[in-house]
# Entry
Amino acid sequence: MNQLRILIADDQESEILVARDALQAAQHLVDTATSFSEALRLAAANRYDIAVIDRGWYTDHALSSDGSKGYKGWEIADAVRARSPEALMILYTVHADEPSTIKTAAEKGMICVKKEFSDDARENLAQAAIALAVEVYQRTRATTTNQASTVFEYRPRIYIHAPYKLEPERDQVKRRLLEKIRELGFDPQEFGVSGIPKGDPWSFGRAMEVMRQCDGGLILALMRRMEFDGTTRVPIPSEYSHFEGALALSCNLPSLVIAEEGMEMRGILSQMGGSFVLQVPMQSPDEWLATDKLLGAPPFEKWVERIKARYDVFFGYCSKADELAKNIKRFLADESGLRVLDWATDFRPGRTIMEEIARATATCRCGLFLFTADDPIEGSSTKTAIPRDNVLLEAGYFMSAHSARRMVVLREMGTKMPADLGGMIYLTIESRVDWRQAAKDVLDALRTQLSEEF
# Structure
């Protein structure tokens, strides 16, 4: 069974030890809280699959929000539900058979287990918790096949450069290399062959457009011709190997150059050129490929690591919209599987804001920006506020690198849209409490952008 995270909250520790020990023995991660404040802290800080909560907290002197002294378990349940909407919860209380308790528990999506301060009752709690763990596991397995509609799976696109009409031996090397690229889950993009430019003739402008939609570059600098250097014949790559390699670097793509042994390591083939560089021994290419020396080579491993480290979304917003942003980010990351670079949590200390914006632009496929009512406008009869200026800067910088086709703006009702972005199609949120529907709309837009080919 998969490991689950479980919260057990009761002001009498002796009542939860049996359940805790049974769940830990089943290899689950269990947090316990014996004070009201600790229970609230844990509920807010973690996402739980299961929560076991005592209704009465008579040994804790803090009052509930309604002024009552004992029934603070309801508040803990609400805190768990806010952070963990799908959690299954047990109400462990001596009042489990009272109609009012049963009614409130049902409204909060909890099942009641009777507390009787006996070994049998403690064992019953442990069994109920184990049963819920099994239910969570079975529910997870039952929905796995349906997650494709929620979790977005993206295959990183790799721009492929290779000389036109290779001789059979080198063409075979190319085919074997691309097979390994596909096995890694990458999607090759090669003019006239595969991906976005499959049916396109090559041109300088079109090469740039395609690269801006890719996550990495693979420059197969295989021999185009032989030249005599005065003493021996030397294999020479196509001049386009240098051009497209430099173009990939200018687009901030992690780039791998595979050259033939014997070539002069100059230009894009140089180890100092900014690319990861490997050499294939053309005297024994089959052996080199068959023994997986490629996959174990440090430059290749580093290149793959850099591609897989890229983010799906850069998320920019004003700190005044922090709660809205947290909810949307949690939906995109936890429920939909997107990798989100959040300016508030992921910008590195010791760097300037512009350095980090440039890094985000270089490593993120799409941008998401919240245009919220941050700074009031005086004298306007139609708009109440404008977005914070740093958010506008981030959005403009990102759009200049990726175009509006890779950017989503979520505009809060009443917020003025900048004139320079006035023709841009954006999403709207009327109230921040409607964040879930807004997050779904954002996800649909991002999926479209990530899947779109232009």
The two ends are 44 Å apart (CA to CA). The first helix runs from residue 17 to 25. The longest strand covers residues 364-371.
